[in-house]
Write a structure and sequence with these properties.
Strand content: 15-25%
Strand order of the largest sheet: 10-9-8-7-13-6-14-16-15
Largest sheet: 9 strands, mixed
Number of helices: 9
Radius of gyration: 22 Å
Shape: globular
Distance between the termini: 29 Å
Helix content: 10-25%
Number of strands: 16
Length: 349
């Protein structure tokens, strides 16, 4: 995840006599899909073996040739795969081609296996339906819902384990979205890094929402690898700050960047997953615009208190409890005392 969009993230393993003899993960375009990589590693030993893959093998000639043809040619006897590909160009055709070739197809899987497989393609599936990426709002708060003290100090509310989890989430996303206020105040790098501070994974697209074009030329994120999409108001006279900084001039809605138009742009690039790491103003704007699909909240067992200590969401807010965003498919994870709560925004609100 986070490395192959607009392709779905897929993993494959070839097993012969209880031993793994080949494994692969889908590569970015124009590279290979997971199944041919695993079959190539298995070589002639693939004949009569079982292929496990996290998504139905694709069955048409695109940038890459059909995986079903490679599986049939390799002499695989059984394919175990839990999910039908939601892409209408596949959508069961892969399974049908394999069965027609005399290959046993097994779809049964445990609930946990199905959940893990669905997680890998949740952004891909969402993009197919909406032509926009799946938007995850990441928040980190104290137990009493504060993101900083009254003086603005926020580093660090959560612990090292939670921060490592955030970097893992960054690696699984295609773009990070933040606001110019965060860029100026926190000077973030907005990269996925390991425990030693070294970049890991594919360089991320960083999207900076900056209505009035205030991005400083010495912002640390500019010196990091990966493209930056600098989103400014349509009347702002902005000049690129570096070769990897592109400018998107956006129409304004109520004197602010049209966030839906930004997501349309990211969707047109074939991006599947984006994550918002922003201050209360931009986070609140995404929520009030109805543009958040998933929420990940890290809660630290600390109490900050105070009327002037900020919360994670600004804006007008709701007036009736019945209008609150409701989460579904909730999971929670304890990380060295912090609690990560994740869930999808209910579309039945």
């Amino acid at each position: 995840m986070g490395g192959v969009a607009p392709r779905p993230a897929v993993g494959a393993v070839v097993v012969q006599d209880g031993q793994i003899i080949g494994e692969g993960a889908t590569e970015p375009r124009p590279g290979r899909h997971a199944e041919p990589i695993a079959l190539s590693e298995a070589g002639e030993h693939a004949k009569g073996a079982t292929l496990y893959c996290s998504l139905e093998p694709h069955a048409f000639q695109g940038v890459a040739p059909p995986c079903t043809a490679a599986i049939i040619t390799a002499g695989i006897s059984k394919v175990v795969s839990p999910l039908e590909d939601p892409n209408p160009s596949v959508s069961g055709n892969g399974f049908r081609q394999l069965k027609a070739a005399g290959i046993e197809v097994v779809r049964e899987a445990t609930d946990e296996q199905n959940t893990r497989a669905e997680f890998l393609i949740e952004g891909f599936h969402h993009h197919l339906k909406t032509r926009r990426p799946l938007v995850t709002l990441k928040l980190a708060t104290s137990l009493d819902g504060k993101i900083a003290t009254r003086t603005g100090e926020s580093q660090w509310i959560t612990n090292e384990g939670s921060r490592a989890s955030v970097h893992a989430m960054r690696r699984q996303t295609d773009a990070l979205i933040t606001g110019i206020g965060t860029v100026i105040a926190d000077k973030p790098r907005l990269t996925a890094r390991d425990s030693d501070g070294n970049p890991t994974g594919r360089p991320l697209l960083r999207v900076i929402i900056d209505t009035h074009g205030r991005m400083p030329s010495d912002a640390p994120l500019i010196n990091e690898p990966g493209e930056i999409l600098w989103v400014v108001g349509q009347n702002v006279d902005a000049t690129s700050l570096a070769p990897h900084v592109s400018i998107l001039k956006s129409v304004l809605s109520d004197s602010k960047i049209d966030l839906a138009a930004v997501l349309d742009e990211l969707g047109s690039r074939g991006l599947h997953n984006v994550m918002i790491e922003a201050g209360a103003g931009l986070a609140g704007a995404f929520v009030e615009s109805g543009l958040v699909d998933k929420v990940a909240v890290f809660i630290a067992p600390k109490i900050i208190g105070g009327n002037e200590a900020p919360g994670p969401l600004a804006g007008l807010g709701i007036s009736a409890i019945n209008d609150a965003l409701v989460m579904e498919n909730i999971t929670h994870t304890v990380i060295d005392g912090d609690i990560l709560i994740e869930g999808f925004v209910s579309k039945s609100n």
